[in-house]
Amino acid sequence: MEVSITDNQKNRLKKKIEKFYKDTKHCRGTSECPVKNILAPSVDKWSLFCLYNLAYNDVLRFNQIQKYTPDISSRMLSVTLKKLEKAYLIERKVYAAVPPKVEYKLTDFGYQFSTKLIELNQWIFEKSTELKH
Q1: In the structure, how many helices (H) and strands (E) does the chain have?
Q2: Among residues 66, 63, 69, 55, which one has the least CA distance to residue 112?
């Protein structure tokens, strides 16, 4: 029986999944899983908008992020930015000024993460036409 390319890809994926579960075994039952702690706060629609806007513009203030993020309320933007900051994807810099000046930018990790996310998003868009058939 001949092994196809698809069979080989499936086998490689299974090995990657096994390795992932072995490597993350210590995370089960704790709140210290880095994968969960990064993915959970970052892949909702508001977080994606914030990450992409910061990746594109480098540094933005709260009102600028809100302007570039359609239909987001101030409260939701505030909650989203706090989540992303807690996940070390963005950093917040407060300037001693009146009125207070606050700027947001991606961390180095946040920039690398956004690069991977946009690649995933592009792949999804490319494959979405195939899903409709």
Answers
A1: 6, 3
A2: 55
pTM to 2 decimal places: 0.77
Q: Tens digits of per-residue pLDDT, 35-87? A: 777 777 777 889 999 999 999 999 999 999 999 998 999 999 999 999 999 99
Within 10 Å of residue 118's Cβ, how many Cβ atoms? 14
CATH code of the region 33-131: 1.10.10.10
What does the alpha-carbon distance between residue 37 and residue 46 come to, in Å, rounded to a whole number? 17
| Residue 54 structure tokens | 């910061």
Q: Where are the domains of the chain?
A: 33-131
| 104 and 52 Cβ atoms separated by less than 8 Å | no
C-beta atoms surrounding 79 within 10 Å: 14
Query: In this structure, which long-range contacts are made by residues 69-77, counting pairs with CB atoms below 8 Å and at least 24 apart in sequence?
Result: 72/46, 76/46, 77/46, 77/50
36-46: burial string, b at 16+ Cβ within 10 Å, e else: eebeebbeeeb
What residues form DSSP beta bridges with 103? 61, 93
